[in-house]
Amino acid sequence: MHPFNDSQYMPGTGESPGGRLARTVPLTGTIGQAYVERRGIPGDIADAAGVRFDLNFGGRPAVLVGMRDKEGIVVAVHGRYLHVVRGQNKMLTFGPGGGAVSVRGGWRVDPLILVEGLFDALSLATCGWGSVATIGRWAPWLPEVSAGRVVWLAFDASRSGEAEVARYAKLLCTSDIRRLLPPPLCKDWSTALVKRGRNAVTRWVRDRLMAKETSPE
Description:
It is a single chain. This protein folds into two domains: about 15-95, DNA primase, catalytic core, N-terminal domain (DNA primase DNAg catalytic core, N-terminal domain); about 100-210, Dna Topoisomerase Vi A Subunit, Chain: A, domain 2. The protein is about 30% helix and about 20% strand. It is built from eight helices and ten strands. The chain has helices spanning about 15-20, 30-40, 45-50, 120-125, 140-145, 160-170, 190-195, 200-210; strands at about 25, 50-55, 60-70, 75-80, 90-95, 100-105, 110-115, 130-135, 150-155, 175-180. The protein has a five-stranded antiparallel beta sheet with strand order 1-2-3-4-5. A five-stranded mixed beta sheet has the order 6-8-7-9-10, with helices on both faces. The longest helix is centred in the last third of the chain and has 14 residues, at about 200-210. It is globular, with a radius of gyration of 17 Å.
């Protein structure tokens, strides 16, 4: 995994992940809703996934989501800033870790699809599929919940994405690992949704899953 060094508490305030998430507001009617919709995500899809809005997340407005453990307890908060200028981080994640973002049933439904980013998971949800977003972090309970199951690794179409595929293929050694790539000329699922549209991405995923792609070496 990437060598992230997340703070256990909210920088500058010392809040816990659950405490900070409790201070957020629903997306509806906020600039956060406008932001997710510009990225092709219907507001109700984001809302159902637990995405919230924070006007002052470390000094800037952001959309937030809780990262949860297997029991559904919030163990981290992941935020995506609405506005970024040169030198600023696009995201902020804090908390002790060990969680992931489950969207549209996440790991509890089949097919079990793992993606990297929040907007990758929201994009697949827009097309009708559940997934688990790792946010580049490792959730130690994933081998248990994926044991004996087909797991589709839908990480980015990039060198770093392929490195994640290789790592997860080893870490989830009791699963049937298969690769699910975004459509051609699309780095990730968020890009694919914006460039290709909902119907095209829906067909692409459906056809790949039905084709039963072979496992990576």
